[in-house]
Each structure stands twice: as C-alpha cells, then as structure tokens.
Amino acid sequence: MPKFKCDLRNSQGIPVKQTIIAESVKEARDKMRAQGFSIVEIKEVAEGFSLEKLSMSMKKVTVKDKAIFSRQLATLVNAGVSIVRGLGVLTDQCENPKLKVALRGILDDVQQGASLSDAMRKHPDSFDKLYCAMVEAGEAGGVLDDVLGRLAKLLEDSARLNNQIKSAMTYPVTVSILAVAIFVGMCVFILPTFEGVFKQLGGELPVFTQILVNISNFLRSPQVIIIPIAIFIFGFIYGYIYSTPPGKLYLDGVYLKLPLFGDLLRKTAVARFSRTFGSLSRAGVPILGALEITGETAGNQVLTNALTSARQVVREGGQISPAIEKENIFPVMAIQMITIGEETGELDKMLMKVADFYENEVEEAVKALTSIMEPIMIVVLGGMVGSILVGMYLPIFSIMDQIK
After folding, report:
1. Distance CA 121, CA 130 (A)
2. CB–CB of 160/180 below 8 Å?
3. Number of helices (H) and strands (E), helices first, in the chain?
4. Rounded to whole angstroms, what are the CA distances from 124 to 74, 147, 212, 275?
5. N or C: which end of the chain has fewer CB within 10 A?
6. Do residues 42 and 5 make contact, with C-beta atoms less than 8 angstroms apart?
7. Does 237 score more than 90 pLDDT?
8. Is the Cβ–Cβ distance between 298 and 304 less than 8 Å?
9. CA 19, chain centre distance (Å)
10. What is the pTM of this model?
11. In contact, 66 and 155? CB cutoff 8 Å
C-alpha cells in the first residue's frame, strides 16, 4: 500500500510530521482528522525499487481497458451519478492494476476540486492527450456523458482496426518462424546423420548437398553466435535511425510505398486520422487543437508532417483539404469528401463517413492480403523443407550410379 508523508498541526497548533500507510490521499486525510489533527499538506512518498513496482511498470493500460472505463463512466454520468461517486465505483472494480492506481489518483484530485481532464493529464501513461482533450471539451460543453460514449466508440473502432492489421501480419510471421525453425532443426539434427553415412560410402558430395552440409556445420559451430549478434546490431541501428526525425520520416515514407503492405498502411492511416479528427471536432475541440492532437497520434511521420502543414495553413485562414492534398498521402476520394465537408459546414460528419469507408477498405485489404500470402508462405515452407530432402537424396542417387 502507498505511504503518505503528512504535515499536520495538533490541537495546540504545534507542527507535527507523520508517515502513514493508506489506500489514498483521502483515506490518509480522514485518518489524521480522526486523530484530531488539522492538515497542512499530504504527499505520497516515492517508494524505492521493488518487484511489485517493476511489475506495475511493465503492465499497460490497453485500448480495451480505456474503452470499457469510458463506456461505464458514461453510463453512470448519464444516470445522474456524480463524477466522484462514479470514479469511486469504477476504481473499486477495476481489474488492471496500473489503471486502478491512476483512477485512485484521479479520484483524489477530483475530490480536492480539480477537473476530470486536469486530473487525467497527470497520468499520461493511462490517458493520452487525445483522451484528455475530448474529456475537457465534454466538461466545457456540459455533455461529458455524450463525449465519453463517443470516446468509447472511438477506442473500440481503433482496437478493431489494430486487430485487423495484426491479423494480416500474424499468418506470414508465424509461418516464417515455423519455416526457419524446421529448416534449422533439419540442418542441425537430421543432415549430420546422413553426412556420416555419405562419408562411409565414399564419393564426392553434390554441390547443393555440400552447401547444405556447410550450413549445418556452421549452425553447430560456436560461430553461430554471429547471427544473434548481427540481429542485435541491426535492431540497434534501426532503432537509432528511427528515433531521429529524418530517419523516421524516411522509413515511414518507405513503408507507405511497400508492395502489398504500403496500400494497407495508407488506408489505415487515413481511417485513423478521419476517425480521430472527426471525433475531436464533434466533441467541440477547436480545429487547430484537433489537428495538433491528431498529428501527434497519427503513427506515421509523413502524415504528421502533412497535418502540421495543414495546421499552419488553417492558422493563416486557409482550408484543410488543399493543405493535405499537397503532401500526396490521402487518396483523391478522401480529399474530395473532406472538401465537401468543409464547404457544407459538416466536416465532422463527412470525416466519419471517410473513416467508415476506409475501415471497410482496410478489412477488405486484410482479406486480400491474407489470401495472397497463404499460398506464398506455403510455397516458401515447402521449398525450405524440400531443399533439405533433395540435398539428402542427391548423394544417394550419385552413389547408386557409381555402383552401377
């Protein structure tokens, strides 16, 4: 349980300092008041390293966790339950320990008079800038329950979109790992046995078989450590390059041009932008703020730069669609629909339609990509296993010819 350092005054007004264990600031305050102290300040004591703290830092607040919380809080607020009471109920029943700690801190801040959005901003690991901006807009407009419902829908759609992308990647990655594992296993455990037989029978090994034997010898030698070291160095270099703005911009641009996957990534980026920007606009967030938040959550530096340029154009009195069109990222249809939305004054509705359309496009692209990848991966897997079999049987045919 958390520890709290309390600066107090007793009944005679004498300063007193105590450290107590409590579930929250509110509980610590109640305990001290029950003992007759007046409170000057209560601060949570930062704990040192512990396995529990390490475990907590490794846990994540998932999109699903936030969607469930948003939906439940929206229902409670809509039913007339106060924010404080609603947060108390959801904190008690929260199963994610990291989110539970964040909600406990938010509850304490709200009880002390802070707004819900300001309290959430203190926990960026649980509630990002997008979430806090929409909550702030809901509080300002007096429609917090409606905004929370939209947030839940936004998070659910985002989770569904991410799952579609993961499903497209799961099959080829799994089959690739399986193919490599089978190939290495046959080279390490099966091929050496045949190599010994071939040496006893005499004769020169065919070139293809000799190549496989050399691979087998390398995989069984201490030099095999070169492979994981090379992978580690490559990962480190890639991570360093991707962490720099020019490197991230270049690599994200390359990803958008990849065959098969590039079109999928582009449609995903358009769908995510449209859904996020439309939700922010509908919640009452100003356009400049919505563009800034959407750019930060775009997930692709090319799109982020395009939205930064669009934000500058809008600040100078221009429209969004021409600025985005210059970057040549968005499909023509998406640009035209955004233009119509700006001209009719219904940009948020048009963005939602764009999001619906391209989310369906992503779903169809995932299905098409999966149907294309399945036969390719089967051929790759069969080719790797077949190469080992051919390599083992070629010497047999050669020895039979020598016997004849």
Report:
1. 10
2. no
3. 18, 3
4. 21, 19, 53, 21
5. C
6. yes
7. yes
8. yes
9. 39
10. 0.67
11. yes
